[in-house]
């Protein structure tokens, strides 16, 4: 017996004991159950935490099994991404969603567009997670609705073979609901604030929370200047807060990503507490810039002096009250951050870098893996990088090192369109194409994400449409540039009424009222013009 039939029988048994429920069709109710596989968003968090753990284990065995995601700023964008993935690849396996704090700040705050500095309302992060999963659940209902309608058509034609094939597709249906890696920034406050917000994110469906080691009230985008980090003990308290939130809500295998911004952060707000030489606080303080002194005569009013490495050090402090790290210590600080986080409850790492360079990432990961052999990264394939210029320069440098003639190229101007058809540009594009595969194999990257790609695609597509529609192309700009492409590429939104749930609603009306249902999908619905495309 198919799972579909079992579901119908289960509903029939539930209805059987209530004579007044005789208008309820068990098959219709079973369809509604199948279209709504997650009754709460906390169920989603539990379901996806298990998937992430399985994916992490698969990556440990084979680095080619890395995972990917794109940042989405609206539920509809996330929904269309997953529908597209299923259409093109037949499965959503190892494809996630990323919830970017940058895009929440820039696109979802009631204050209007904001920079990525934790100034937006923290509640909008949970709101977006909930919205994304609401749209993904609707994608399930939409796809199954089409299968149910096809099943009814096959039955009406008496086509038992087609009926069996469709029931098999229903039984083996793969949900659009996938893991979300959710950006909680630096926790939006102290450890208690972090815990409270983490609970909201998990209740909204998050199985994975990413937190960074910046000061929460001084937080900057990872690709901006002026980043200020906190001592390890402060950061570990927030990792613990997130873990307690997962455990309290029963998501025992929830995933925590510990992000370090130390590579680009030259400042700290406070000196770490240390109790003995060589402890974690002492190691943090050893990176502070300053000068060793021999006597109190070398101390001026307001100077701060600490004991470090058995000597007195007058640490460098700015007018802002912030303390400076020594130049050239970024990589060492990153390695210490990562090892410390993994040894104290984090599951995955995020190292924010200034360029996409496999060798640079691998240098740090290899050092981390000397202590934690299964260390894995979530990596930001950031739009803040000029990918074209970076990889053209990397190829230029590699060729120059090999002794290859690069005199035809100006390294500083390799972004120029003049080089677009050159041998170097073609090789750089290959490097870019293979970046994720190479970095997962050589640099321990389990998950590749692009933080804000749909921010850029929305702007680009809108620019192209506006240029044509308000110019000489007029309506042809939409017809040729949008609608015709939707039809040719099989984009489901060409039938936008159906995508928004019109057919699902019609079927529900028929369940509820039978032949008396007033349905929207009749002959006068213009969506019928797309029935055969």
Automatic annotation (TrEMBL):
Gene3D superfamilies: Phosphoenolpyruvate-binding domains (3.20.20.60). Can also use Mn(2+) ion. It catalyses: D-threo-isocitrate = glyoxylate + succinate. GO terms for biological process: carboxylic acid metabolic process. Its cofactor is Mg(2+). Pfam families: ICL. The active site is at 221 (proton acceptor). InterPro entries: ICL/PEPM, Isocitrate_lyase, Pyrv/PenolPyrv_kinase-like_dom, Pyrv_kinase-like_dom_sf. Mg(2+) binds at residue 183. Keywords: Lyase, Magnesium, Metal-binding. The keyword Membrane does not apply. GO terms for molecular function: isocitrate lyase activity; metal ion binding. This is Isocitrate lyase. It comes from Isoalcanivorax pacificus W11-5.
């Amino acid at each position: 017996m198919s799972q579909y039939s079992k579901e119908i029988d289960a509903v029939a048994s539930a209805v059987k004991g209530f004579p007044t429920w005789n208008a309820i069709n068990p098959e219709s109710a079973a369809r509604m159950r199948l279209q709504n596989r997650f009754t709460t968003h906390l169920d989603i968090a539990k379901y996806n935490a298990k998937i992430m753990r399985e994916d992490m284990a698969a990556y440990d065995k084979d680095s080619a099994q890395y995972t990917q995601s794109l940042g989405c700023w609206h539920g509809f964008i996330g929904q269309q991404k997953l529908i597209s993935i299923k259409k093109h690849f037949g499965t959503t396996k190892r494809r996630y969603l990323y919830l970017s704090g940058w895009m929440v700040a820039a696109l979802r705050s009631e204050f209007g567009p904001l920079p990525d500095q934790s100034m937006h309302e923290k509640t909008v992060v949970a709101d977006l997670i909930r919205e994304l999963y609401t749209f993904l659940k609707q994608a399930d209902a939409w796809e199954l609705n089409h299968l149910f309608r096809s099943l009814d058509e096959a039955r009406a034609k008496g086509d038992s073979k087609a009926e069996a094939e469709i029931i098999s597709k229903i039984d083996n249906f793969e949900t659009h609901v996938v893991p979300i890696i959710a950006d909680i920034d630096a926790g939006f406050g102290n450890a208690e604030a972090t815990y409270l917000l983490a609970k909201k994110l998990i209740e909204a469906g998050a199985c994975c929370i990413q937190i960074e080691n910046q000061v929460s009230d001084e937080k900057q985008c990872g690709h901006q200047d002026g980043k200020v980090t906190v001592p390890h003990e402060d950061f570990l308290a927030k990792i613990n807060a997130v873990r307690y939130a997962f455990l309290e809500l029963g998501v025992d295998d929830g995933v925590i990503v510990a992000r370090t911004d130390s590579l680009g952060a030259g400042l700290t707000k406070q000196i770490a507490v240390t109790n003995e030489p060589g402890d974690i606080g002492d190691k943090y303080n050893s990176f502070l810039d300053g000068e060793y002194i021999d006597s109190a005569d070398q101390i001026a009013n307001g100077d701060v002096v600490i004991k470090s490495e058995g000597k007195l050090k007058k640490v460098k402090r700015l007018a802002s009250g912030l303390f400076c790290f020594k130049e050239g210590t970024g990589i060492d600080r990153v390695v210490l951050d990562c090892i410390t986080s993994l040894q104290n409850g984090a599951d995955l790492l995020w190292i924010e870098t200034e360029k996409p360079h496999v060798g640079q990432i691998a240098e740090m990961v290899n050092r981390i893996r000397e202590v934690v052999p299964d260390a894995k990264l979530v990596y930001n394939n950031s739009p803040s990088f000029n990918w074209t210029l970076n990889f053209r320069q990397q190829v230029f440098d590699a060729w120059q090192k090999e002794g290859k003639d690069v005199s035809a190229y100006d390294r500083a101007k390799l972004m120029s369109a003049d080089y677009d058809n050159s041998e170097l540009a073609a090789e750089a594009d290959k490097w870019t194409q293979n970046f994720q595969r190479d970095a997962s194999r050589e640099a321990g990257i389990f998950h590749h994400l692009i933080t804000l790609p749909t921010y850029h695609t929305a702007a680009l597509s809108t620019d192209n449409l506006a240029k044509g529609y308000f110019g000489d192309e007029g309506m042809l700009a939409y017809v040729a540039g949008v609608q015709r492409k939707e039809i040719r590429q099989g984009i489901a939104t060409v039938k936008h009424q159906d995508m928004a749930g019109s057919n699902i609603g019609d079927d529900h009306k028929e369940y509820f009222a039978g032949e008396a249902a007033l349905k929207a999908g009749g002959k006068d619905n213009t969506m019928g013009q797309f029935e055969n495309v």
